Model the fold of this input.
Amino acid sequence: MYMYTQGHSRLISTGVYIPEQRVTSREIMEQIDSVNRFDIRYDWLERTTGIYERRVAPDDIKPSDMAAKAALEAMERGGVKPTEIDAIIYSGVIRDYLEPATAHIVQHKLGASNAIAFDVSNACLGFMSAMHLMDSLIATGQARRGLVVTGEKGYDYSQKACGLLSKTQDRQIFHNLIAGLTIGDAGAAVIMGPKLAPDTGFMGFIAQSDGQFNNLCFAGGNKDGGPLVTNISEIVRETTKLVGPMYHELMEKHLKWRPAELNRYIPHQVGLKSVKKHAEVANVSLNIVPITINFLGNIVSATIPVNLHLLSAKNQLALGEKIYLSGTGSGICLAQAGLVWDAA
Done:
């Protein structure tokens, strides 16, 4: 049921790209004229999801640009040169092209000529899956400096949804497209390397896929790309059921940690209610859960690394602190990891 891997790597540094432009949930609801079309108040999206605003990248910025900007910050913070990077994994849902892999474009933009480069796609879980994979490359000695990046330009899906909702009064279509209205833009990067000591860095990874729920959230099913279509209540319900057993498996069987020992619990964030539910399942206080959904929206695969970076940049992570990462994605797929902080 679960794939467990002992951790062999550490985070060296983090970086992000967060656009300046802000778009509020009220502006989106006004754009689709929700009051007159669906008899839904303009403040409904904010009240329901907890998302007040999200960031939007300029039209001329590509996912690879966002990823490269985040990578440059991570390289500067970690003191890592482009030619020292051995592997690059791009993990975003949104890519520059179907072909070539966006990781190659990032490699070129960074001048990381010695790195192998490839993409990993796994919905919102992509970054967690890529870190798990990079840990394996480091464990086998294939990489000493690994770069995991993403550049989620997901607001494009919001605009696809708005375009469709501006032409209908069907409330069912509105509910099918709600998830697309929550997405914001962001880039993120981490540089990984071998552990410095057995009791620091990544202590373990665990992953699970439950494909019977593959129809609960999907996008890009036609030649025009299509909107993000989600049965949001069902996917949140089924994902929450799966989070708890995995959490107890990793915490109790492998890490031997107790919830009270955790200094930070960082889950994927699709809405404020979901974040609170995940904290409840993990038996941790919301005081140790960084919340960015209110001002960044759902930033897809960038959620966990952005939260790690913001905590680090604000000096809110101390050496030796125990951090728990809990990622989820449509599929349904899940991955969790225990991390003892020793990054820059």
Observations:
- Residues 192 and 244 are 28 Å apart (CA to CA).
- The chain has a mean pLDDT of 93.
